[in-house]
Amino acid sequence: MTFDSLSPDQIQSLHDEQLGAYRTLQDAGLKLDLTRGKPSPEQLDLSTELLSLPGDDFKDAKGTDTRNYGGLNGLPELRAIFAEIMQVPVDQVIAGDNASLAMMHDTLVFSLLRGTPDSPRPWAEEDEVTFICPVPGYDRHFALTEQYGVKMVPVALNDDGPDMVAVRELAADPSVKGMWLVPTYGNPSGAVVSEAVAAELAALEAAAPDFRIFWDNAYAVHHLTDERTKTADIVGLCAASGNPNRAIVYASTSKITFAGSGVCFFGSSEENVEWYLTNLGKRTIGPDKVNQLRHARYLGDVEGVHQLMEGHRAIIAPKFEAVLEILRDRLGSHDIATWSEPKGGYFVSLDVPDGTASRVVELCREAGIAMTPAGASFPYGDDPRDRNIRIAPTFPSIEELRTAIDGLATCVLLAAAEQHLRS
Amino acid sequence: MTFDSLSPDQIQSLHDEQLGAYRTLQDAGLKLDLTRGKPSPEQLDLSTELLSLPGDDFKDAKGTDTRNYGGLNGLPELRAIFAEIMQVPVDQVIAGDNASLAMMHDTLVFSLLRGTPDSPRPWAEEDEVTFICPVPGYDRHFALTEQYGVKMVPVALNDDGPDMVAVRELAADPSVKGMWLVPTYGNPSGAVVSEAVAAELAALEAAAPDFRIFWDNAYAVHHLTDERTKTADIVGLCAASGNPNRAIVYASTSKITFAGSGVCFFGSSEENVEWYLTNLGKRTIGPDKVNQLRHARYLGDVEGVHQLMEGHRAIIAPKFEAVLEILRDRLGSHDIATWSEPKGGYFVSLDVPDGTASRVVELCREAGIAMTPAGASFPYGDDPRDRNIRIAPTFPSIEELRTAIDGLATCVLLAAAEQHLRS
């Protein structure tokens, strides 16, 4: 029962049926928010212990007083845990404050105003600086490059990573200085960059000697199934390919412990780490080491991180299942929409009929269901096909989520029917 | 008994006497560090309670879950406390993470790459950007502007603030975009900017429409006597003078609670705050609100801050007294050195005979007493008279401090005698 196989009368009848459902939805006076990938209170409760740590014992394993100034690269024992997760030697890991986005920002700013170790000049002195943006992607990445006038060029993000034909072509342009990438459980599609694609990225011929991959491994350990997907070792692959400074790995505990009060990490080559610290040392004397100690004590080791993530999975996997179940039930028979079935991460990516995503989001909003704006997953907020919608299932309760996704499905069908009736 | 009134023999005898004392000092195998303005462990112990806060109650006064994302401008109840200290309406105060230096860095970066609300273009697109640097001043300020190629021009910092004749002259140059200033208990001289000088700065005719005063009120409540010196209300004065966006006030709890794990603050006009938040919102989703809640609970209110500062004073005022006592005893009769007698802040500024500061610091180092490098209080590390030495008395124990300052006095006398013998 695809829309194309329906007669005009059948479409009209489907439209009227969905319009009825939509009016009921509006009458319900909902106020649901699926805009952002926020952990739910139940997830945050998993780490309640953090709220009373570290207690009176404020010294790290080496005896450093974490309360005082210093320690620019962060607490050794916490860096050790994340070095393992990030597959980077501990000396090449920096632990920061509560936002890996801030580390990406600062990397960009240092590159713009000072240049990287491989730059002939600061990026701000180039006529043009371009970033490759796999789409759909993370809106805050794109907002950051847009903020500083970096030109963004989209390439398709396939199931195994970015479209390498397009990437290779773009990288031949010396103005192309960088690339955004969420390698594991892409935001929003859940795509995982394969070993093969990672190796291609590492070996890629880039015209710019200072080409950088911002490898944002935000969901490195955020599995939704029994499969612990292993992220490709991009720093190792780059080194092996003779491009040691190409990749920078970012990670954070924002979706492990507390979204607003976690610790973030930067991992790369020795030279990049030294470069970053030299610049960072002008900005701050050091990170919040007490918070890092709190985290080191609470997490313990890598296995502690994985155990905590099992706790998250127990809370959020049923929410993802509910989303997929409702999408299948309501949209599966119509062949008008496709969606990701992610094995991890924080999102479901929904593609609706071309030209209707904005209308769907508008209908949702008018029924009290706030969705991420259509186009958000694209540079400049511009989804050329106006079809992609990002669903963030983690924050609402499962009952609210079911109501919201059922409402969303109604809006998808209604918008599709409207479009068919107009055409 | 000034050096000039001594005969060559008397100088030689003084030299030999001090050399003897210096050799004894070297033999003691000291390892003392007076380089940085770090709180002592005893001072940090005053805030031990913070290490177990906030406990299970993680909601702020409005019921916001501080563990989650959001709240870009910071926790309202903590901002309220510091709004009072900074003399800025609470809506015009932003609470950040652990380093006000980072806020100054970001203000500079946003100005360079995006321009201020009053800038015809981003500062990075100007041929030259110049900052006025009252000296002696804070080395980390100068390192920050140097990092980004901002030209620094020193002006004298008098007891009531910067030399306004020099400032007025410089501000007539449109490349002069800003000025560093520690208004209360200057680092290192302890100078306090008077109401009159502050009013002049606010009303100053600046050729650059986007001239900014980076008003780093790091020691706003850090009194060493019963006198609670009140900082001039620079934001109010600027508004009254028709230059509402001129001044930005920075503050932090680094030397109130924990040096490495405090909270910093930005206060300015409504327009500057909006500008800063718009830019900041691309860098981060929000600050560490749990740490802000911890601080709000612990400090309680402004009176709580003042009480805590009395605790600090009880610990550090005797250290400052010890420094002054030894300098008076050892150097007072020789008329070769002058020093500040600060009513607050973290430093004593010592001026030794012109051309000997580097030698004094070298002698100290070779005797195991680490001092801040000579020249550090000047842009580019260049003290044209090579005479200023910054003493940071807070971190060492009082016994270590006495040993170090006595050793420093020996080095001052020895270097002065060496110089006289050479001339």
Would you spell out the secondary-structure blueprint of this structure?
Two copies of one chain form a homodimer.
Chain A: H1 8-27, E1 32-34, H2 41-45, H3 76-86, E2 93-95, H4 100-113, E3 130-135, H5 139-147, E4 151-158, E5 161-162, H6 164-171, E6 176-181, H7 195-203, E7 212-216, H8 234-240, E8 247-252, E9 264-267, H9 270-283, H10 289-299, H11 302-331, E10 338-339, E11 348-351, H12 357-366, E12 369-371, E13 388-391, H13 398-422
Parallel strand pairs in A: 1-12, 3-4, 3-6, 6-7, 7-8
Antiparallel strand pairs in A: 2-9, 4-5, 8-9, 10-11, 11-13
Describe this structure in words.
The structure is a homodimer of 423-residue chains. Helix content of chain A is 41%, strand content 13%. In chain A, helix 12 packs across helix 13. In chain A, strand 3, helix 5 and strand 4 form a beta-alpha-beta unit. The first copy, chain A, is an alpha/beta fold and 423 residues long. The model of chain A has no long low-confidence stretch (mean pLDDT 97). In chain A, the strands form 3 sheets. Chain A has an 8-stranded mixed beta sheet, with helices on both faces. A 3-stranded antiparallel beta sheet of chain A has the order 10-11-13, covered by helices on one side. A two-stranded parallel sheet of chain A has the order 1-12. Chain A is built from 13 helices and 13 strands. At the A-B interface, helix 4, helix 5, helix 9 and helix 10 of A face helix 4, helix 5, helix 9 and helix 10 of B.
